[in-house]
Amino acid sequence: MKKLIPNTITLSNLFLGCMALVALFTEELYLVIWLVAAGGVADYADGAAARILDVRSDLGKELDSMADMVSFGLVPGAIFYFLLYRLDHAIEPLGLAWAAAPGFLISVFSGLRLAKFNLDTRQTYDFLGLPTPACTILTVGLLLVYIYDPFGISLGIMNYTFLYTTILLLCILLIAEIPMFSLKIQSLSWKGNEIKIIFAAISIGLIIFKWYLAPFVIILIYILTNSILFLLNRNTRI
Fold first, then answer.
1. pLDDT at residue 166 tops 60
2. Window from 22-26, 35-39, 44-48, 55-59 with minimum mean pLDDT
């Protein structure tokens, strides 16, 4: 019976992801953001519930991957499709546009990453490659920029070159063998958590300073920080 609790929370994540897709294609963009955020909370809560109740199951693991594939794979791909489509169809209803189709490469590579994650025993605490929730936060950040600045003037990002390049880089990062820290803190001590605490403080500052730009910039900093640490550690080993 206890196993039903985390599995139910996981299924709520799946449901919220489905509703986020509906909200996107009916252009209820604020609702998309809230639904994705709620899905993120559910994704964290199911794992927390499983640990508190001390329950594990193969079914729960499979359900978690399926839910993540929708909320953190299909949804960000659809958001990129929406943003690319809107470059040429500012007021038309959403339809099929091949120029926007590459947005769903995010979904394809998210699926590949999730499959690899399930088989990779090295990713028990930190990650190898960009986690799908982080990719989704960055994507939602782009949607926020679109809402508040449809022409991307503040960052100069609403154009094909930027969006295609971002898609390509995200696809590479999703499956790259680059260590990336998680935000799980095992103790409240400064030692061993320096980077995570500094990153959290910067993130809070960005949210206070310019909240609608914060999600995109925070994940950009996350990617750059981990990439620099990877290069520094590799050079040290050499």
1. yes
2. 55-59
Alpha helices by DSSP H, listed for 120-159, are 132-148
The gap from C-alpha 200 to its chain's centroid, in whole angstroms, comes to 17
Cβ contacts of 24 within 8 Å, gap of 6 or more: 32, 75, 78, 79, 82
d(CA 204, CA 92): 37
- How far is it, in rounded angstroms, from Cα 196 to Cα 222? 10
Which single residue is written with the structure tokens 């990129």? 80
Fold adopted by 4-180:
Four Helix Bundle (Hemerythrin (Met), subunit A) (1.20.120)
pLDDT of residue 222: 93
DSSP H or E stretch at residue 206: helix 194-209
Q: Residue 179 and residue 130: Cα distance in Å, rounded?
A: 9
Cα separation, 133 vs 180, in Å, equals 13
* pTM over the 0.85 mark: yes
**Phi, psi at residue 128, to the nearest 5°?**
-115, 115
Specify whether the backbone of 70 is left (phi greater than 0), alpha (psi in -120 to 50) or beta: alpha
Question: Which residues on neighbouring strands pair with residue 179, listed in sequence order?
Answer: 128
Please tell me the distance from the alpha carbon of residue 16 to that of residue 60, in angstroms, as a whole number. Answer: 17
Burial class of 45 by CB neighbour count within 10 A (0 to 12, 13 to 18, 19+): middle
Query: Counting Cβ atoms within 10 Å, is residue 58 exposed (0-12), middle (13-18) or buried (19+)?
Result: exposed
